[in-house]
Amino acid sequence: MKRREENETKSAVANNTESVQKNTRNNGPVFFVEEPKYTLDDIILPSNVKEQILDVADYAHNSKVVFEDWGLEITHKYSKRMGINLYGPSGTGKTMAAHAIANYLGRKILIVNYADLESKYVGETPKNIRKAFQTAKDTHSVIFFDEADAILSRRVTNMSNATDVSVNQTRSVMLMLLNDYQDFIIFATNFIENFDSAFMRRISRHIRFELPDYECRVKLWQNYIPYKMPNNIDIKKLSTDYDGLSGSDIENAVLMAAFKSARHRDRFVSHDYVEEVVQGILKSKNENKKEMVVTKKRVVSEEYAKKQMEKSN
Fold it and tell me: What integer best gives the mean pLDDT of the chain?
């Protein structure tokens, strides 16, 4: 009796899983639009970067005047799209800026990651990309491709299998949709060097996000240390001594130091705790950089070995 119940349960789970898989395959992913979480006042960036963001945001605001009233829709008929690419190190505020731009335009935002688009079924990924663009169009939302290098990377030149063909098909569909899209679109990446040159040409503006300078670090520390939190943190010292931190690093450092102080039942959050956390963050980042260099050298070495083997044959 028990075995029969177990078999029935397994069968029900299998049927339900199959049903979900069929539904996912037939209908594809569901893309949700949301209200922007940040405003331009919320983001702390160097003035030149913020000015560039305002430039592109105002481009969308003034497009009617430029294209319709001044007649540039005739001479620049394929330039109504404003595609911008926010690139730079992780944690420097690219995603926050995308939300802030959407907020400035008074529109919702549709966030797309490659994981939302990718499908194990042949031909489904391009369909999912089309669906993302159509959803943005139907909802009049700003479409934001996060980690865009995953979908805008270079096309495969020497195709050797079905996967290579599928990758190139996906890139071609993305190019076509980008050509036809006449609205605001934002990309963000930590690895702009991986972009295909065809996509680079079709993106109107590329805005580089750097690690925060001294003034921005001071503002970030001030922003993430709440006035209710008792502390003896020396913001100027932290801002002077540690210049390799991103905004995200500073946010995490305050949080981790606060939890450590709470765990030790301290009366206030110690500056020493913050420094300890910061040093740990920087150590991890430096080790990660070394690993990336080793990996890059290994890949180059493999490519070199492959070429040498081809020459010998």
Answer: 84
Q: CA-based angle 93:94:95, to the nearest 5?
A: 95
Q: Do 129 and 163 touch, CB atoms closer than 8 A?
A: no
Burial environment of residue 109 by CB neighbours within 10 A (0 to 12, 13 to 18, 19 or more): buried
Identity at 145, one-letter amino acid code: F
Q: Note the pTM of the prediction, 2 decimals.
A: 0.80
3-state secondary structure of 135: helix
> pLDDT tens across 18-43, in order?
333 333 345 678 899 999 999 999 99
Domains of the chain, residue spans: 28-208, 214-286
| Topology, domain 28-208 | Rossmann fold (3.40.50)
User: What is residue 193's DSSP assignment?
Assistant: G
Architecture of the domain defined by 214-286: Orthogonal Bundle (1.10)
Contacts of 91 (CB under 8 A, 6+ apart): 246, 247, 248, 249
